[in-house]
């Protein structure tokens, strides 16, 4: 072999060695650092602003999937179960808690306990770290004050009347109404829940698509009273001074406090980015932002009271009196199965 040929092979070998070292490094500029995939059941009008700010502050690209409004949390939960063996999602941002706890039972969630987890009270997080609650809503009655005084005794008296055609409730297959039903069953038994439900229907309660529809019937003067939650109720109170909200109380005198929840998906592809997004969502700044949004969500971790609206501060004691939602997990599936048989063909 000539000297020139030897030199040529030395150069080729060096280039191959360089490629072997450099190319893997280039390829490892990775998806797991530069992006995060989020399935989100929170309203896009609020979630988009939070996720956009995270993107700006971190440089991490956020791919977000929302779902259909009425059944979004249930639909996304079912999708995550279907994708369990090959997950596409890194972080699940649910607008409630029971569906997230259900995912833990299906083995979909990865335990993660960072600083954000520690700032949330123990009653609003999974003890093993599979999910953490933040920024809550309360289940409330919305009343037309010229027809029903905004007091629990007056509301209960109205709900005991034989004609409920001017009372509205969302169909309980989804959302916070399903949580409400599950809490009722957990506290008083599913038979008591079924009797209460049939009593409402037999007396002509108006069943509508969702909480916003129930709210609108009160605002429009078609109904005197509805069951809804704080974010929809605030939207009514902001534009109509003749309506007011009152927190629902259970038979055991607990409120129904329903946090958002965030969880990491087991086997997710972008672990580092997932951790950063979870920490961001559980931060004081995000809870303050959501408290100051039009939905007025209630902070669960410690915040400066001066940073949140007065009407949200007024709800903090009620949030602290919330029913322990983990106690409703055992009946949640039974309630959903019964309601599916009631409403679905």
The low-pLDDT segments are: 1-32
Rg of Cα set: 25 Å
**What would CATH call the architecture of the largest domain?**
3-Layer(aba) Sandwich
**Helical content, roughly?**
40-55%
Q: CATH homologous superfamily of the largest domain - what is it?
A: Periplasmic binding protein-like II
Q: Hey, roughly how much beta strand do the residues contain?
A: 15-25%
Shape from CA axes? globular
End-to-end Cα distance: 83 Å
Q: Using the coordinates shown, work out and report the CATH topology of the largest domain.
A: D-Maltodextrin-Binding Protein, domain 2
CATH class of the largest domain: Alpha Beta
Number of β-strand runs: 10
> What is the typical, i.e. mean, pLDDT?
89
Biggest sheet architecture = 10 strands, mixed
Summed up, the helix count is 16
Structural class: alpha/beta
Count of individual domains: 2
The run of helices and strands is HHEHEHEHEHEHEHHEHEHEEHHHHH
Record the SSE blueprint.
Blueprint: H1 3-27, H2 31-34, E1 35-40, H3 44-58, E2 61-65, H4 72-82, E3 91-94, H5 98-105, E4 109-110, H6 115-119, E5 132-144, H7 152-159, E6 167-170, H8 175-188, H9 190-202, E7 206-208, H10 211-219, E8 225-229, H11 230-239, E9 243-247, E10 257-265, H12 271-281, H13 284-292, H14 310-313, H15 316-320, H16 329-343
Parallel strand pairs: 1-2, 1-3, 6-7, 6-8
Antiparallel strand pairs: 3-10, 4-10, 5-8, 5-9, 5-10
Helix pairs in contact: 4-5, 8-9, 8-16
């Amino acid at each position: 072999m000539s000297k020139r040929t030897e030199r040529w092979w030395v150069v080729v070998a060096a280039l191959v060695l360089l490629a072997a070292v450099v190319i893997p490094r280039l390829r490892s500029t990775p998806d797991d650092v530069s992006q995060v995939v989020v399935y989100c059941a929170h309203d896009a009008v609020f979630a988009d602003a939070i996720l956009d700010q995270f993107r700006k502050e971190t440089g991490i690209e956020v791919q977000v999937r929302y779902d259909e409004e009425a059944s979004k949390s249930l639909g996304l939960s079912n999708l995550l179960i279907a994708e369990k063996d090959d997950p596409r999602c890194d972080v699940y941002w649910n607008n409630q808690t029971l569906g997230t706890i259900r995912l833990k039972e299906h083995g979909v969630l990865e335990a993660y306990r960072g600083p954000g987890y520690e700032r949330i009270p123990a009653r609003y997080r999974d003890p093993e770290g599979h999910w953490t609650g933040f920024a809550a809503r309360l289940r409330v009655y919305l009343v037309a004050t010229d027809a029903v005084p905004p007091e629990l005794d007056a509301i209960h008296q109205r709900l005991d009347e034989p004609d409920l055609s001017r009372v509205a409730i969302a169909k309980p297959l989804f959302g916070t109404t399903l949580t409400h039903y599950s809490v009722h069953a957990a506290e008083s038994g599913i038979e008591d829940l079924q009797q209460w439900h049939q009593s409402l229907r037999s007396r002509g309660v108006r069943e509508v698509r969702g909480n916003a529809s129930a709210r609108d019937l009160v605002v429009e003067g078609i109904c005197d009273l509805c069951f809804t939650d704080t974010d929809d109720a605030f939207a009514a109170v902001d534009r109509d001074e003749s309506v007011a909200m009152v927190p629902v109380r259970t038979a055991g005198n607990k409120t129904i406090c329903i946090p958002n929840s965030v969880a990491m998906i087991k086997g997710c592809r972008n672990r580092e980015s997932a951790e950063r997004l979870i920490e961001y969502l559980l931060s004081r700044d995000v809870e303050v932002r959501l408290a100051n949004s039009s939905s007025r969500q209630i902070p669960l971790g410690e915040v400066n009271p001066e940073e949140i609206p007065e009407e949200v501060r007024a709800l903090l004691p009620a949030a602290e009196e919330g029913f322990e939602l983990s106690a409703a997990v055992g009946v949640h599936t039974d309630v959903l199965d019964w309601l599916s048989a009631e409403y679905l063909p």
